[in-house]
């Protein structure tokens, strides 16, 4: 009796062992989706999802472009996959590691792929690459050639909740760190969160940079060398450490992600938070704050507001592994039309990435100020070590709030300079 | 196993191969081959984008052992496995005993126990993450209504504090491990001969004495196998930690399995080196366990 039981359970045991084994090595098979039957080329488009739910998922937006495109180009089919922002880098990287290349990605762009010669350059897949916003050209370039093509852009400002400010007796928004501390303390006294500090893995690299900039720091120095463990940056984290210790932020910022805190801001229980235009639809759909209940201002620095902000662009990259250059070019030329750029910005409250679309939007009352800030904006580094560095910042920078800022930054600096 | 193969026809000696062959092929393809690939990968210098840049010798292992987070990760893994498996087995023993009794609604109760097993572990973890939300998670709302925590405070932020988060994740791991162990033990209980119990009672043994001297020894085979499988499963458990804390903040709630995955994003070779070590740990733990539990005595 019991022997039978053992036998059947032992089989289950072998199965479990097999799982351990499978957890290891990555496959190295190469699959290339060639030209299908009837000379139809199928493009694999992988995009980050900017939507806030199924109703406005990015695959819907892309599908409308694809439908119009396929009607004009019967020989090309496009399959779109939208991936949640939290998983985008990871999943795209896994596809690349497994040599299952997409044709086009839209989301984060990494210079590594250009270095590995996996990408078409911008002029190979766009008829008019000069229409892309020039301020982001450097960020998308490797060895002087542009591979990352900005698709959508945004800049950051400090959002604040006017209702909570009034309740706490604050009349003007803060411009310095000291004022941020004072105001956050007053808001905390009303029973709400004074300042939302998302230093969890989703976007810690952005939040940290916005604070670094406020103290004249950043990820790189003026000559483009990594300078992550600079005195200014250590000072900044020392300030944040005492800021968090004073209890005016949400508890345990190292484990809090931007999306969650933005939603909490929209529900009206956070006084201040750094945001991009993408926060606006979240506020609107939350239904708790009307447009007169919040405002946004320049981000406070140590001694005064930042005169530059973080300008972020999400990029299109075209992979060459499947050899679909002509089809990709046809599709990208089609998708980069102004009307689709503007449709995207309207749908997700982001900014355009082409000169012609920017001009069409420059007088817009909401987007105008953000657009004006773009040309002076600071960008993320564009070296090939940035991908690893970014992953490490996301994973570890929050630990500086309870640990030793200097040693956390030293380790990140080591990663940034190791693989250069 | 007996090997009484008739000697008359020499070809018939190969008949067993016909039966064993497919299974052997499966094990070679699904178990052994990945292990070989994993071991090879751990000695290669592989770029983050999956290109083989040549041999790294033991460089990946050197890098791995220099990771500052590694000692903490290893220790946490030990706590994770021992804690989850011990609690699971103790609770399963009680549950199986309960389910072995006749009571009204037993069938429904037995079915209900399968639910955590049938549900995707990822979904279970997500639901627990929501339930533990510091602002409005159902667990916190209940604790708040009982006057035990204040919403939105550090106290309510279970998943933000590494130790509290780790304890909660261990609780979830126990929750999803219970059904299998309980059913394994229940199966063992049901094979028992009531005559033995009858005899014990006639001899005047107390219920506790009966449990210790009859039930537990007869359950040994079921307990050994259930424990072993749990050790392997819990050691490899990925979705609970990944969905609830992503191993963070920093690496402070990572076990070797999640740490391996985080490493894979940037350092494939090093990640493979950790896989090799993980695999070795599982094999060694299993062998030691079987040795200590005198597995062979049970089978023969």
Automatic annotation (TrEMBL), chain A:
Signal peptide segment: 1-23
Assigned keywords, A-Z: Signal
Entry superkingdom: Bacteria
Segments passing through the bilayer: none
InterPro entries xref list: Bact_solute-bd_prot1, SBP
A family per Pfam: SBP_bac_8
Family annotation (PROSITE patterns): PROKAR_LIPOPROTEIN
Protein name (record): Carbohydrate ABC transporter substrate-binding protein (CUT1 family)
From TrEMBL, chain B:
Record-linked Pfam families: BPD_transp_1
Positions of transmembrane segments: 17-39, 78-99, 111-132, 165-186, 218-242, 272-290
Localisation: Cell membrane
CDD domains named among the record's database cross-references: TM_PBP2 (cd06261)
GO annotation, biological process: transmembrane transport
Keyword terms: Cell membrane, Membrane, Transmembrane, Transmembrane helix, Transport
Family annotation (InterPro entries): ABC_transporter_permease (IPR051393), MetI-like (IPR000515), MetI-like_sf (IPR035906)
Record's GO cellular component terms: plasma membrane
Residues annotated as domain ABC transmembrane type-1: 74-289
Leader peptide range in chain numbering: none
Bilayer topology term: Multi-pass membrane protein
Family that this chain belongs to: Belongs to the binding-protein-dependent transport system permease family.
Protein name: Carbohydrate ABC transporter membrane protein 1 (CUT1 family)
Protein species of origin: Rudaeicoccus suwonensis
Lineage of producing organism: Bacteria, Bacillati, Actinomycetota, Actinomycetes, Micrococcales
